[in-house]
Each structure stands twice: as structure tokens, then as C-alpha cells.
């Protein structure tokens, strides 16, 4: 006889969750039968044929691994593949980093950027003033998943202004004012480069001012580093902000992803770093590493191996590393070119408004400035898909659809 006992999880306590907006957009795009449809929603690189691009250097690393007679599928250590984490340190902090030389960096392999952020969030909630946890300040806007990652571990959110709708650039005055007003000890989440979703980054001079204020106020930096090398094509340029903070002696956290710059989206290769302050010792970093390992053990036991092995093979081989930098130039260069072409087409059409922000911004995304109504018209009339806040993935543009997209944007701007 079937039990008549009701579920322990009724709708009153476990309501139907809303669909993730981005993955819902992807599903709608796939259902669209139009031959002209264009996907500017998904944050993944596409080549000029609108196809996923497996980096040539990744193919070479893959061949090396597959032909290695010693390759096996045993567990990695809890902290991950040592040659991967050590190479990740050098990539983000620089091979001549004093913090690395001093042993002040504790690194642990994590599940791409999201897993790195989550591990950092857990660490902060458990150990950073746990009796009275400070708020974590997110940029407005920021990557939507940031909100869930930090609230899921019961960290309180606050926000600082970031994007100016008027200039479609950085609201630097508002950002500095909000950070200056944050209580001492507050955590400030910063996008290292290629800010998601706006594509707007501070200049190096502005980063210096941000560091000045955070140092004066005693604020704690947490960098989300998802696009190093992918943004500008220059690994060192894209790491400048993090290296500046470390050189000034800040204690900080970094979440590092290899999804975009290696095209290892599904392999979930990432690294989480803790940097002890300049006044600390290697023993201090070691203490933190021991606690991170316990958190990792309870969450995933140990990280997946294959993506880390691919990245490690490239990062630790001089010839492959040089080729990887060429691959990065290919990807970043195509995106820069598509930005220039889209802007040129809109300006040639005389599309109302200014469009210099398309090329002023950098990286995967452009915050187009289109309204939710205009985005809706793009989708309904032109079958062009982007998120409702007007964020467009530049990677979805190519030589065959950019004129069509420009025509569509021109139409909805004039009609809406």
C-alpha cells in the first residue's frame, strides 16, 4: 500500500525556483527556428564561423596527455595538482613576485571561477570576524551569480556604484565614495579585468586610487579573475591590478578561472589563492592553507584532474606557453575587431546616440545601453538574443552577422 504521508518538502517551504535567466535565454535561442537568429547571450568564445574554438595549444596538450603512458585517473591531492597551482601563482602574481618568494601565497585548485569564489566565501564566513561578519560589497551591476554565491553562505551584501548609464563608462566618483563610506573591515569584491557584465575597467591610475582608499579604510580585497589574457591579449596587463595590490602589502583573496583564456569551459579548471600581508610569514600562509584543505575536503574531497593537467602542461612548457599567448591574441583580437566593426556600422547608419562605448569597453561583453524594451524588440522582431539588461556577448558577432546585428540595433533604437 502506498504511503499517505505528505512530502517533507511541500511547496510552502520548497517553492518552484525561477529559471536561471541566462540559461533560459539559451534555451529560447535554441527553440528559435529562424535562420537569421544571433546568440549574443552566452559568455563563451566563438570563432568567425560561430563555432566553439578549441585552442590549438590545448589540442597539443591533449595529445601529450593521451600519449603519456603514465597517465592515470587516480585522485589528486586535496589541494590539487601541485605543478598546476604553482604555475597558477606565477601567472597571476608574476614569476618575480615577492609574495611567492616569501611563501606568503597559499593556493588550492578549485572548480573554475565559481568554485574558487565559493571556497573563498566559505573561508571568509568561517574565519573572517565570524562573530560579526562584515558585508561584502559587489559592484552595481555585477555577474548575477555573485549574489547567490555569497548569500548562500550567509554573507551580507552591499553594493558600490560602478556603471554610469550616462557615459556608459565607469562611475568612478560614485565607486570611490561608496568604498570610502564602507565600514572598516568590509570585503570589496573587485573584477581584475574585463568587468562582467559591463566590459568597463578602471585605468591603472584609478586602480591606484582605489588601493589608496582601501588601504586608508582598512578594507579587504577579493579579486575575481576570470579573463586574464582573454581581455587585452596581454597576461601581464590584465593582472596589473592584482599585482599592484599585492606589491603594496595587502592581504587578499583571488578566484582564478581558466574557462575563458584556455577555452576549458566544461573542464572546470580554476585556482583559489590567499595572499598573506607583507608583515606575515610563510607559516601564516601555511595555516590558512591547512584550513582551506579542510573546507575543500568537506565540499568536493579533491578537484577534477584533466583540465588542470591541460593547463599545467601549457603553463610549464616554454614553447606551449608562447603558443598559448598567440592563441590569446587571436581571441582577444577578434573581439576587438568585432567591437570596431559594430561601432563603425552604427555610426555610419547614424544610429541615434553615441557608440564609442562599444570600443571603449573590453573583453567578452559590451553593456550596449539598450533598454529592456529594445532588447525585447531585438529578440521578437530580429531574433537577436542578449540579456535583458543590454549585455551583449561580443563573441557572438562575426563577419557574417555583424551587419545584420547593426541593422537590428539601429531599428530598435529608432522605434523604441
Automatic annotation (TrEMBL):
Signal peptide: none
SUPFAM superfamilies: PLP-dependent transferases (SSF53383)
GO MF entry, a single one: pyridoxal phosphate binding
Keyword field: Aminotransferase, Pyridoxal phosphate, Transferase
InterPro entries: Aminotransferase_I/II_large, Asp_trans, NHTrfase_class1_PyrdxlP-BS, PyrdxlP-dep_Trfase, PyrdxlP-dep_Trfase_major, PyrdxlP-dep_Trfase_small
Coiled coil region boundaries: none
Enzyme class: transferase
One Pfam family per UniProt: Aminotran_1_2
One GO biological process term: aspartate biosynthetic process
Cofactor section: pyridoxal 5'-phosphate
Domain Aminotransferase class I/classII large: 36-409
Reaction(s) catalysed by this chain's protein: L-aspartate + 2-oxoglutarate = oxaloacetate + L-glutamate
Any one GO CC term of the record: cytosol
EC number assigned by the record: 2.6.1.1
Subunit (UniProt): Homodimer.
UniProt record similarity statement: Belongs to the class-I pyridoxal-phosphate-dependent aminotransferase family.
Other notes: In eukaryotes there are cytoplasmic, mitochondrial and chloroplastic isozymes.
Protein name: Aspartate aminotransferase
Amino acid at each position: 500500500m502506498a504511503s499517505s504521508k505528505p512530502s517533507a518538502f511541500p511547496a510552502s517551504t520548497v517553492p518552484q525556483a525561477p529559471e536561471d535567466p541566462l540559461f533560459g535565454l539559451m534555451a529560447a535561442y535554441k527553440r528559435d527556428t529562424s535562420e537569421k537568429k544571433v546568440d549574443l547571450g552566452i559568455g563563451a568564445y566563438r570563432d568567425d564561423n560561430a563555432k566553439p574554438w578549441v585552442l590549438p595549444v590545448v589540442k597539443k596538450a591533449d595529445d601529450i596527455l593521451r600519449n603519456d603512458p603514465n597517465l592515470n585517473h587516480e585522485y589528486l591531492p586535496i589541494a590539487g595538482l601541485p605543478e598546476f597551482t604553482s604555475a597558477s601563482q606565477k601567472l597571476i602574481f608574476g614569476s618575480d613576485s615577492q609574495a611567492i618568494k616569501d611563501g606568503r601565497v597559499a593556493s588550492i585548485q578549485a572548480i573554475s571561477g565559481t568554485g574558487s569564489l565559493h571556497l573563498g566565501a566559505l573561508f571568509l564566513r568561517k574565519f573572517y570576524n565570524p562573530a560579526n561578519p562584515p558585508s561584502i560589497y559587489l559592484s552595481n551591476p555585477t555577474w548575477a551569480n555573485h549574489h547567490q554565491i555569497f548569500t548562500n553562505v550567509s554573507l551580507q551584501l552591499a553594493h558600490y556604484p560602478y556603471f554610469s548609464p550616462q557615459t556608459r563608462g565607469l562611475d568612478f566618483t560614485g565607486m570611490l565614495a561608496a568604498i570610502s563610506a564602507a565600514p572598516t573591515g568590509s570585503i570589496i569584491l573587485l573584477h581584475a579585468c574585463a568587468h562582467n557584465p559591463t566590459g568597463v575597467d578602471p585605468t591603472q591610475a584609478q586602480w591606484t586610487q582605489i588601493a589608496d582608499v582601501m588601504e586608508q579604510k582598512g578594507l579587504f580585497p577579493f579579486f575575481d579573475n576570470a579573463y586574464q589574457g582573454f581581455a587585452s591579449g596581454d597576461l601581464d596587463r590584465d593582472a596589473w591590478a592584482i599585482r599592484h595590490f599585492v606589491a603594496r602589502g595587502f592581504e587578499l583573496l583571488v578566484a582564478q578561472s581558466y574557462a575563458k583564456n584556455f577555452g576549458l569551459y566544461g573542464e572546470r579548471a580554476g585556482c583559489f589563492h590567499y595572499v598573506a600581508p607583507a608583515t606575515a610569514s610563510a607559516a601564516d600562509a601555511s595555516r590558512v592553507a591547512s584550513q582551506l584543505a579542510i573546507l575543500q575536503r568537506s565540499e568536493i574531497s579533491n578537484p577534477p584532474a584533466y583540465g588542470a593537467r591541460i593547463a599545467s602542461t601549457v603553463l610549464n612548457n616554454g614553447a606551449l606557453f608562447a603558443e598559448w599567448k598567440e592563441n590569446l591574441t587571436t581571441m582577444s583580437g577578434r573581439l576587438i575587431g568585432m567591437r570596431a566593426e559594430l561601432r563603425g556600422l552604427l555610426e555610419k547608419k547614424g544610429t541615434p546616440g553615441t557608440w564609442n562605448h562599444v570600443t571603449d569597453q573590453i573583453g567578452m561583453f559590451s553593456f550596449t545601453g539598450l533598454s529592456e524594451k529594445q532588447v525585447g524588440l531585438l529578440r521578437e522582431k530580429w531574433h537577436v538574443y542578449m540579456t535583458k539588461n543590454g549585455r551583449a556577448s561580443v563573441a557572438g558577432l562575426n563577419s557574417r552577422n555583424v551587419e545584420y546585428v547593426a541593422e537590428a540595433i539601429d531599428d530598435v533604437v529608432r522605434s523604441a
